[in-house]
Amino acid sequence: MTDTRRLDGVDVLRGLSILAVILLHIELRLRIAGFPLAGTMPAWLRYLLFSNGGNGVTVFFAVSGFLITRTSIRRFGSLAQMRPSRFYRIRFARIAPLLLLLLAILSVLHLGGAEGFVIPAKRATLPRALFAALTFHLNWLEASRGFLPPNWDVLWSLSIEEMFYLFFPLLCVLLFRFRWGTTLFIVPLLAFVMVGPFQRAVWSANEIWKDKAYLSGMDGIALGCLTALLTDRLRNIRANVWLHRLAGATGAAMMLLVAVWPNWHWLHLIGRHGFDNTLVALGACLVIMATVLTGMTGNWFTAPIRWLGRHSYEVYLTHEFVVVWGTMLYAKLHSGPLPVWFIAIAALSALPGAILARYFSEPLNRRLRGATVTGGHNAKPEVLAENAA
Fold first, then answer.
1. Which of 138, 234, 279, 302 has the fewest CB within 10 Å, making it most exposed?
2. Residue 49 Ramachandran class (φ > 0 left, ψ -120 to 50 alpha, else beta)
């Protein structure tokens, strides 16, 4: 019988990550509008809630690398049997529909002069921004010209991710032709892991490029790929379940340390040398491996977060519409308790993405890839995993 269970642990990680991104962006827009949250809560709690959006994106990268590698192994039988044309078609089906819709809406808002959506002329023209988004170098454009409006800015991480996957199947075809194909394939992945911290700490020309350079994010994706390879090797090996749980607990502790106490002296030293992102990604990979190998499933308590994780791609691309308009509305009305507005904006931020996932991106995803199955818990495992990637 085919296993159709979702990877609940992965959904939890993605749900927490997209929540961290949303909270960061709401706090940032409110602060820019002149309504900072400083002094309303303990410093450590404020940092945990509103300063971990970047760490959330790092977790996204690790999860993405794991899911793409895992589903490729299951879909093709092994990475040595990779078919690039099919790989690209599936990636296009997953990414392109919502991306193209988003760019169309942003173009209309820019041309209509909508406040908060107009690209500053000194930074880019609309055609230049569209070209950067469609050729996955918007991260480079922002690093060289400055930040674009919020709904454009979120596309920087997509630039890194899709550039990695442009070469991923080609490396599989090239390297697995040789006898030691797996070893040859692991070498560039380890190289990405080692280079990432140096890119963030040494090779970055400015603060934007420090976070948004291609190599700054690819170490997380590479760690996810390595985790998928290792998990595939371990899945048929009997091991003490407590060892897997210990690995998962260790990974969670690693992420929590960076998320809550980054100013500890030794953690500050790690961050200054660019290893904090690597630590978060490695922690996420340990959690992923533990939940997959133990077959861990979710419960009612984690259901809302898992729901958010299942729609994380759509929510990520669309949440800034609610954040921008919601914070602008509060700034104009300045009526009612700020915490209530904050919670309302955060809750509503997931709504456009969830609606688009159900009625637009997922139906087009299945149609474009030629799938004959429907979504939900009756879908084939590769469809479920790819939808989470």
1. 234
2. alpha
pLDDT digits (tens, 9 = 90+) for 328-366: 999 999 888 898 999 999 999 999 999 999 999 999 999
Quick: pLDDT tens for 167-196: 999 999 999 999 899 999 999 999 999 999
Looking at this protein, which amino acid is placed at residue 45? L
> What are residue 299's phi and psi, to 5 degrees?
-135, -175
Q: Within a 10 A sphere around the Cβ of 140, how many other Cβ atoms?
A: 18
pLDDT of residue 4 exceeding 50, the answer is no
Tokens of 211: 């976070």
Measured distance CA(151)–CA(323) in Å, rounded:
10
**CA dist 286 → 77, 117, 211, 228, 308 (Å):** 24, 39, 23, 11, 21
- Indicate the helix (H) or strand (E) that contains 294: helix 276-294
**Burial (CB count <10 Å: 0-12, 13-18, 19+), residue 371:** middle
Q: How far apart are the first and last CA of the chain?
A: 24
What residues does each domain of the chain span?
Answer: 8-388
Among 281, 314, 256, 247, CA closest to 99:
314
Distance CA 207, CA 156 (A): 14
Give me 389's structure tokens.
């990637």
pLDDT single digits (tens) 53-88: 999 999 999 999 999 999 999 999 999 999 999 999
Task: Tell me the DSSP string of 200-258.
Answer: HHTS-SSHHHHHHSHHHHHHHHHHHHHHHHHHHHHTTS---HHHHHHHHHHHHHHHHHH
Please check whether residue 62 is in contact with residue 159, taking contact to mean a CB–CB distance below 8 angstroms. Answer: no
Contacts for 208 with CB less than 8 Å, ≥ 6 apart: 142, 143, 146, 147
